[in-house]
Amino acid sequence: NPRPDAYSVAVLRRGGRFRLRFRDYVILTTGLVDLLSSDEFDAVIEHELAHIRSKDDRYLPFFHLLSSLVFFDPFVRYLRNRLSRRYEFDADEAAAWATRRPRILAGALWKVWEATSGRPAGAAFLGRRRPCEILERIEHLLSLAESMENGVD
User: Fold this and answer.
1) Helix count (H) and strand count (E) of the chain?
2) How far is it, in rounded angstroms, from Cα 79 to Cα 125?
3) Which of 63, 90, 92, 118 is 20 to 30 A removed from 83 (C-alpha atoms)?
4) H or E segment at 8?
């Protein structure tokens, strides 16, 4: 797929203690691989692995399904949006600490945002894709970079 994107997904498989187990995958498009530098690519992978470690890819689909079933309930929609936002910020922060290079992840976010803006279907890597939220994530990563550079952990 030429559209740059990355996301993690958990698939139920047979096996394991309760006869079912999750198998986690990180999905990357060729558009993303072609767009990013190797450092940016590593930061995006770390972001997606943070989702897997936090098991976001198991919980958020439930809230997406629930909000689709009870589409008339603004509280469920609000809850889904808040969780999605929190998961993205948490994965950004985990990736920033793991790589110790939050500016690189901020640059990757910006590149993917620029490459997908104006298209009806945004990139999953960008989260809910509200422009203000993408800028907030980038600003958060840049402030985290300043903290790291000043020796604040």
Assistant:
1) 6, 2
2) 19
3) 118
4) strand 6-14
